[in-house]
Specification:
The chain is mainly α. The protein has 15 helices and no strands.
Length: 364
């Protein structure tokens, strides 16, 4: 799950490096981010049709190899067309790896805590890379170094593929029995809600680095802000693990939306390094706090485990629309419409997830 979401997690820094190296406009900046996210969504959208029929170990191995090769291609051929195609391939393979991981975690007896632990491990990987990339790698080797380093992560994870089960049934004896019957409407409603939520969330998130730069903040300070954000996120995972079972999923989802809106208000209404760092940290912390509860609510509502693999598809579609849409409205020193887009989309997404929780027999 960590490598499946790695590029996703470090996208603002990676896109910022590409924007500087290739002199991308706001619109091109959004399209580059969306190419990866569209790939992240594409193949996983068809997962219910074939995921149960393939060897998961071989699929994971092939996906990791293609992911590494795609990132290497971006580093070697630094043209916008090649980068768009290669990032689409990287997004596709990342989505497949993420989809497999979600299926395995969703079949465990306590999926909520499984997703919290998986999120913690994923963010440890992201924190390592999001700190070293802008402070050590990019200043020395530029965008090329960032891409080669990301490819190296994928190569390292190749050695973990023997630990994957070959089929969902190998992941847990409860895989087929956990939700043997029920309507698919709650899980599809939840998936749709998460996708809409990500339109607003990722639309703003993709421009966090640009917002800091246009406030006149240094690249080092922005890197420190994102590094501190990852520390806050790790502490948030610990808090979420402790609160799991003590608070309802409904409370966690509402709290997440409220915190994200507070961060957006801080970004829009204040200027300066302190307020920027605080906003980035609050944004990341409340996003992360709500995410395991959102995903657990969706997998718990899945009648037979058939739809869990579609999670990256809904996330990817929403996340791909977000940067491209935000890129149309973002202007120098003016992100008002982007803030409005985020608030509206996150509100609708939260409402749909709450409706899914209400309809699901697995409501905590």
């Amino acid at each position: 799950m960590g490598i499946g979401g790695l590029i996703f997690n470090v996208l603002p820094i990676l896109l910022g490096s590409m924007a500087d190296s290739l002199k991308l406009s706001h619109q091109q900046f959004g399209y580059v981010g969306s190419s990866f996210l569209l790939g992240f969504a594409g193949v996983p959208a068809t997962a219910p049709l074939w995921l149960a029929r393939v060897d998961w170990r071989r699929l994971a191995l092939a996906s990791l190899i293609i992911l590494a090769a795609s990132l290497a291609a971006c580093a070697v051929w630094q043209s916008l067309a090649v980068i768009l195609l290669a990032l689409f391939a990287a997004g596709t393979t990342s989505g497949l790896i993420f989809s497999l991981s979600v299926n395995i975690l969703g079949s465990t007896p306590n999926s909520e805590r499984s997703f919290i632990v998986a999120t913690l491990i994923s963010l440890l990987m992201a924190a390592l890379w999001i700190w070293t990339m802008p402070t050590m790698v990019i200043p020395e080797w530029g965008m090329t170094g960032a891409l080669w380093g990301s490819a190296g992560f994928a190569v390292c994870v190749v050695f973990l593929t023997p630990l994957f089960p070959k089929r969902r049934a190998d992941a847990s004896t409860q895989a087929g029995a956990k939700n043997a019957a029920g309507s698919p409407i709650p899980v599809l409603l939840g998936l749709t809600g998460l996708g809409i939520f990500d339109i607003g969330l990722i639309g703003l998130w993709s421009f966090l680095e640009r917002m800091g730069r246009e406030q006149g903040l240094s690249e080092l300070l922005i890197a420190q802000a994102f590094s501190l954000e990852k520390l806050c996120v790790l502490l948030t995972c610990v808090a979420a693990f402790w609160l799991s079972g003590r608070v309802s999923k409904r409370f966690a989802v509402i709290a997440s939306f409220s915190g994200i809106c507070a961060a957006a208000m801080l970004l829009g209404l204040t200027q300066g390094s302190a307020s920027y760092i605080a906003a980035v940290c609050i944004f990341g912390a409340f996003w992360t706090f709500g995410y395991p509860f959102q995903v657990s609510a969706i997998t718990d509502a899945d009648p037979n485990g058939r739809y869990a693999g579609m999670l990256p598809a809904f996330m990817g579609v929403g996340s791909a629309i977000g940067p491209a849409l935000a890129g149309q409205f973002a202007g120098k020193d003016d992100y008002t419409v982007v803030f409005m887009l985020m608030t509206g989309a996150c509100f609708i997404g939260t409402l749909l997830i709450l409706m899914a929780l209400r309809m699901s027999k697995k409501t905590s």
